[in-house]
Amino acid sequence: MNPIYAAMGTTIFEAMSARARETGAINLGQGFPDGLGCEPVVEAAARALRERSNQYPPMPGLIELRRAVADHYARHQGLNLSPEEVIVTSGATEALATSFLALIEPGDEVICLQPLYDAYAPLIQRAGGVPLYARLEPPHWTLDRAALEALVTPRTRFLLICNPVNPAASMVGAETLAGIADFCVAHDVIAICDEVWEHVTFDGARHLPLIGFPGMRERTVKIGSAGKIFALTGWKVGWMCAAPPIARVLAKAHQFLTFSTPPNLQWAVAEGLATQDGWVQDTRHRFQRSRDRLAEGLKTAGYATLPSAATYFLSIDLAGSGIAMDDRSFSEALIEAGVASIPVSVFYAETPATHVVRLCFAKEDATLDAAIERMADFRARLG
């Protein structure tokens, strides 16, 4: 068995969700919304299943979806992409794996920002790369360019950045992004940008894609997700955007991974990108209201929370809450009290933080209220 995976357990998301199912706990751990998602897009997929082809679509993706992605980013982010620069993937995780397998040569170093999505490191290592880690610290999770400079060696070829940042629920601002762009150009580094949360931003904040900064058009892979845009996480429809010399290499790796993604879902996402801007905006406001509902309920119950500028997530600061437990112990005890959460220490590859616990607020009001009630009872028992 490959040593990268031999000692690896089940991902924390599946483990906590399985325990929630077994115990009847309210699942605020794994990040998926309640409800059916964007119903016009679901209906479009159902129609396409009966009325369009169900055979292999083109390997890079249906031209209708590739064009819709390019048009969407032109409207929302001012990008000038052609359909040939878009490759459809079976979710953003496949896009990440494709990027690593296509671009990394054995021994290449990849700078990552931790806390980080738990798929990053094993996928980089499986592609022959060496992950290096720049650490972000709560409560603001800011990136210091000096930390990037300290990691650079002659083997450093890539920077992997998630923005908006999961699991920190923060956003990288314009000034920091400009510094990252300067860093990439100065060191001839390709940026692989996981931007799946680009439409789940709050308080009027606008996502800025790194590919749009000076010097980055030819050295960026931008990764997006229809699952996050339309609250359809189980569909696993994503894409990679890159300049033609990079896109052509990405396509070669993609063809031997999933090759293609269900065509009815591709047609439906293309229709959604063209017609559902209003739904996306309304849903952003709904998630913000859910964030505020959970934050206020937790505050009343005696918990201190960290800022949440984006994503579906709100984190509890255990130390700031006066709770003398590490995040793993707290999450284990909380699930016994009826609420599943995620300890943020699992998102660190080295020297983890131990006092931050993440909750998903993309739930119905009744679900959040029931979770708050259980967490209030639990907090009262802690004293």
TrEMBL record:
Cofactor: pyridoxal 5'-phosphate
Statement: the UniProt record of this protein carries the keyword Transferase: yes
Location of the Aminotransferase class I/classII large domain: 25-374
Coiled coil regions in record: none
Taxonomy, superkingdom: Bacteria
UniProt keyword ATP-binding present: no
Keywords: Aminotransferase, Pyridoxal phosphate, Transferase
GO molecular function ontology, one term from the record: transaminase activity
CDD domains: AAT_like
Pfam families per record: Aminotran_1_2
Database matches in PANTHER family: FI04487P
Listed name of the protein: Aminotransferase
Organism: Sphingomonas rustica
Classification of source organism: Bacteria, Pseudomonadati, Pseudomonadota, Alphaproteobacteria, Sphingomonadales
